[in-house]
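User: I'm writing a tutorial on reading structure tokens. Could you give me a worked example: one chain, its sequence, then its tokens, then a sentence or two explaining what the tokens reveal?
Assistant: Sure. Here is the example chain.
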Amino acid sequence: MLGILWSCHTSKEIKPSENAQKELQEILINVKDGETIWLGEGTFYFTSTLSLDGKTGITIKGKGPQKTILSFKNQKDGAEGLKIKGRNITLEDFAVEDTKGDAIKVQDTDTITFRNVRAEWLGEPKTTNGSYGLYPVTCKNVLIENCYARGASDAGIYVGQSEKIILRKNVATENVAGIEIENSTDVEVYENQVFNNTGGILVFDLPNLPKKNGGNIVVRNNFVKDNNYKNFAPKGTTVSILPSGTGTMVLACRKVHFKENQIQNHQSLGITVVSFPTTGLPMKDEKYNPFISEVTIEKNVIENSGFAPDTTRPLGQLLYKLFQKQVPNILFDGLLPPNAPKDFRAVCLREQEGSFVDIDAAHQFKKPITDKKLYECK
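And here are its predicted structure tokens:
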């Protein structure tokens, strides 16, 4: 049986039992602001989503991501493992496994910290896995550090429609997208290890969402390697168009700075900068800006990319048609906003080694530009 003894700031440690589902949910409902919920060592088995709603200053803390495991492999009700709304929430030192949908979804929360949390679908990654591992959306003041995500059919670590975000020292592997930043502002992504995903680090701005115009994003000092895993995303999702072997991609976003990243061994693309029309996806959003601008690429080390484009995806087919097995390290689609001024800056190369191409998508790829000097800036 689970026992609980509330004090001003902490709860008694909760241990796995047959009644874990009911008793832990009751604790999440009745916990008082400022308290800590301690999860003991062992595997907790749950059959439906656990929810924390409307609380302030709550910490949920386990004994470590390999010792405290919340398993949803027999989940029948709900989609998420943990579903959270509140203020000043900390999740620390536990794992969530095999959820029907997203592992941990945090929504409409000001100040959320994920620290040393593991989100994973065990076994070989597959399309029926949940979309997102760690999934804060419409949040402010987000910190994700020292976490691990594996097996997500969309993104292992995803932050969407949020602001003031730090992602650091995380590991993402065997997801469709390792790390994805979407429609968000004021973001730092640094010192993460992203390997063996379909795509490594994605910075997207997409239509038909309440928050648009993502930007002011810095992606620096990350280790992005061998992201050549098969694309197992469900058909119709944005990431389903991603060619296997995409190191990094900026899509329709503004004020993005890729700096001093190690980007190695990607069969399709090293660094890719494209506007939304290049995706071929439908766009019916009059308030949406589909064009990239002010993307700075500086001092990245890009090695062994574009050696075998993934021709199972339209973008990979285009790459193979244009370049065979010698895709340049950095690819820009060349699309500019209508009536863009002469001094409009879409892409800026700053002390950046490696090959480059503007594929001239606006004119059906008739006059690709490979002269890097035209895009260099101080």
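What the tokens reveal: The two ends are 65 Å apart (CA to CA). Residues 1-8 have pLDDT under 50 and may be disordered.
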